[in-house]
Sequence to fold (159 residues):
Amino acid sequence: MAGRVVVPIQNREAQLLGYIGRWPGDPPEDRPKYKFPLGFKKSLEFFNLHRALACPEDEPLVLVEGVFDAIHLWECGIRRCVALMGSTLADAQARLIKEAVPRDGHVEILFDEDDAGRNGRAAAAAKLAGHCYVRIIRLPGDNLQPDDLDTEQLTALFE
Fold:
């Protein structure tokens, strides 16, 4: 993780599971932008789930792709949010959401406005729609990410 901004990943009980390391800026050609510890399975967990579960259950659970998107939403006052750490909602992650959100609850999907985000949000909505109300929130321009928006722009998306 040398040279990276490192963020801890905890499970729903707030137990430390591992870290995600992000290279600040563009990484050298021989290094990936994101790095996880060996053996860590991001498809089994979410970033920020333990904090999201502490929020009132009647608030929608917001699903984003990246850790820094979730941190940005938190800073903007949108606290019941979790990050996939990718653009694909795995079956294990869908089960975690179904445990966290009641059948009459709400999930709001706010993925990046790129091909991976558009494909990922459609697949995630299909996996969750039989369990709860799902709303897809689109960003106001191509290639935008939630952390590209300021607080006012973000909160306007949720109105």
Remarks:
- The beta strands are 5-10, 16-22, 34-35, 61-64, 81-83, 106-109, 133-136.
- The chain has a mean pLDDT of 95.
- Residues 42-157 form a domain with the Dna Topoisomerase Vi A Subunit; Chain: A, domain 2 fold (CATH 3.40.1360.10).
